[in-house]
Amino acid sequence: MNNITMALNADELILNALKEDITSEDITTNSVMPSFQMGEVELICKQDGVIAGLEVFKRVFELLDEKTETILYAKDGDFVKNGDKIGIVRGDIRVLLSGERTALNYLQRMSGIATYTRSIADLLKNSKTKLLDTRKTTPNMRVFEKYAVKVGGGCNHRYNLSDGILLKDNHIGAAGSVKKAVEMAKEYAPFVRKIEIEVENLDMLKEALDAGADIIMLDNMSVEDMKTAVNMVQGKAETECSGNVTRENIERLVNIGVDYISSGALTHSAPIMDLSLKNLHSI
């Protein structure tokens, strides 16, 4: 994340996270460290994985005290190993103690997503298919989680409901049919917007193609039906498959020939990466 992205999109969220953790004071820190004392602490990796969120980690301490200095020995996207010292945070010991958990929460969560995403993206390396995330993100964490997906080698689907048109089963139900839903979207939306629609069977697919949808999402269809669907599309639209895609089952989808595979698991099921702040001492 660059400084502009951080200031516009992340700072307020980070401050809210800090306020959640410190409503009036850090009573524990203030009891053992009543006044200023310069110190430093080491950021240690406790398992192998892809690191992501280092600038967010750093920003937590800066928002508590702009004089805090973070020295990093890795960058987002690097593969780090158990035992690696990734960085040092130097500043007021009270800041180091009070910001520790919030900073690590961001870094562990984002690194876990990047690591999990990398493990799936690697399975698609030799195909034309791109790996996408979804909107199945933790509330108030989307900007961080979608960034972590990109660090891990995935691509971002639409960021939010204002970002793109995706007609799902309930939208189709509200409109009355696949054809009607696409027609209404074309009439309402700016011409620069692509229209994506979710289909669950080959009849719906034919209707979506006839209506002129730009992207067809093949949702929870069998592998054989998805192969048939790709042949039916023949370049008339882009194709995406979705539906409970995980690291354990994605290989069955690699050779279908779809343009995209989307997986909510990238953000809702990735385990955190184990990281720790250790060896705090005065300097």
- Terminal CA distance: 30 Å
Assembly annotation:
single chain
Share of β-strand residues = 15-25%
Which range best describes the helical content: under 10%, 10-25%, 25-40%, 40-55%, 55-70% or over 70%?
A: 40-55%
Task: Using the CA coordinates, give the radius of gyration.
Answer: 23 Å
**Structural class from helices and strands?**
alpha/beta
Q: What string, H for helix and E for strand, traces the elements in order?
A: HHEEHEEEHEHEHHEHEHEEHE
Spatial strand sequence of the major β-sheet? 6-11-10-9-8-7
Anisotropy-based shape: elongated
| Biggest β-sheet strands, sense, barrel | 6 strands, parallel
Number of strands: 12
Question: What characteristics describe this protein?
Answer:
alpha/beta, 10 helices, about 20% strand, four-stranded antiparallel beta sheet, about 40% helix, about 280 residues
